[in-house]
């Protein structure tokens, strides 16, 4: 009996060792390698987005993001987000900001950095991945991955849901759609363009699309259908996400 149990245990270990890796994680790892790999471990970039200047710094697990703008009087305003704190300075001096207002600044600054550094943030511990399947967009095959977040470590926007489309050949992240609940609720579908290597990582601009049907319910099911709506012409351009004047610091 003990020998039978031992043989069964050995057989189970062999079976487990032969199981394929999590397909979603394997696809994401390939995409991160394509977009920058080890270069994401140490990032020090500055760039302009709309009417503001940004600095994005990462060193291992440490990060510092800054948003810089001038007010109507010519004063320099910096919103700074790090692992340890978030605060605002005016002309180099820290100022007191209500928590609810600072939360909005944090969300805005982090959002710009998050999209810039994609797909690297998909390896964060709070990220949950689900392989949806293969789809064809504009004649190319893509792996479709749904991403959601645990409440612990997922941030204020942990209820957001993303869908990423990775080129099956090289792993490039050419499309992304998302459902958001912070400040307002909606769905967007983004098409990447203008890829360029800066400091070893691939940065991209995006055309931001929204459903033409404003009554379309904001649900996971409808989020997963946005690629079909895109191909059938049922999305309209909402805005463009263009980062300019990149410099490696």
Structure commentary:
The protein is α+β, with helices and mostly antiparallel strands. The protein has one domain (22-248): outer membrane lipoprotein receptor (LolB), chain A. 24% of the residues lie in helices and 45% in strands. It has five helices and 14 strands. The protein has helices spanning 2-18, 23-35, 99-117, 220-224, 226-231, and strands at 42-49, 52-59, 62-70, 76-82, 86-90, 93-95, 127-137, 140-149, 161-167, 173-180, 186-198, 201-211, 235-241, 243-248. The strands form two sheets. The chain has a seven-stranded antiparallel sheet with strand order 6-5-4-3-2-1-14, covered by helices on one side. Strand 11 (186-198) and strand 12 (201-211) form a beta hairpin. The longest helix has 19 residues, at 99-117. The chain is globular, with a radius of gyration of 21 Å.
- Give the beta-strand count: 14
Q: From the helix content, strand content and strand pairing, which structural class follows?
A: alpha+beta
Q: CATH topology, anyone?
A: outer membrane lipoprotein receptor (LolB), chain A
**Which of globular, elongated, flat, extended, rod-shaped describes the shape?**
globular
**Could you give a short account of the major beta sheet?**
7 strands, antiparallel
Per DSSP, the total helix count is 5
Radius of gyration: 21 Å
Task: Report how far apart the termini are.
Answer: 67 Å
Provide mean pLDDT, rounded: 90
Number of domains: 1
Helix percent band: 10-25%
Pfam families: DUF6503
InterPro entries: DUF6503
Protein name: Deoxyribose-phosphate aldolase
């Amino acid at each position: 009996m003990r020998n039978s149990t031992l043989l069964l245990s050995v057989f189970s270990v062999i079976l487990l060792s032969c199981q394929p890796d999590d397909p979603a994680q394997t696809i994401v790892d390939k995409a991160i390698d394509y977009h920058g790999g080890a270069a994401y471990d140490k990032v020090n970039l500055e760039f302009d987005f709309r009417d503001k200047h940004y600095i994005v710094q990462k060193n291992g697990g440490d990060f510092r993001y800054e948003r810089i703008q001038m007010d109507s009087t010519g004063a320099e305003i910096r919103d700074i987000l790090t692992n340890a704190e978030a605060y605002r300075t005016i002309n180099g001096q820290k100022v007191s900001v209500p928590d609810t207002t600072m939360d909005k600044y944090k969300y805005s600054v982090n959002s710009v950095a998050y999209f810039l550094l994609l797909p690297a943030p998909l390896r964060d511990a709070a990220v949950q991945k689900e392989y949806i399947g293969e789809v064809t967009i504009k004649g190319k095959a893509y792996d479709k991955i749904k991403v959601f977040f645990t409440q612990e470590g997922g941030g204020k926007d942990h209820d957001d849901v993303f869908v990423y489309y990775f080129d099956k050949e090289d792993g490039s992240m050419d499309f992304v759609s998302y459902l958001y609940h912070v400040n307002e609720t909606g769905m967007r579908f983004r098409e990447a363009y203008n890829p360029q290597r800066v400091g070893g990582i691939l940065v991209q601009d995006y055309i931001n699309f929204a459903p033409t049907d404003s009554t379309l319910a904001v649900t996971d099911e409808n989020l997963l259908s946005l690629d079909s709506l895109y191909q059938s012409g049922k999305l309209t351009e909402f805005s463009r996400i263009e980062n300019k004047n990149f410099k490696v610091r």
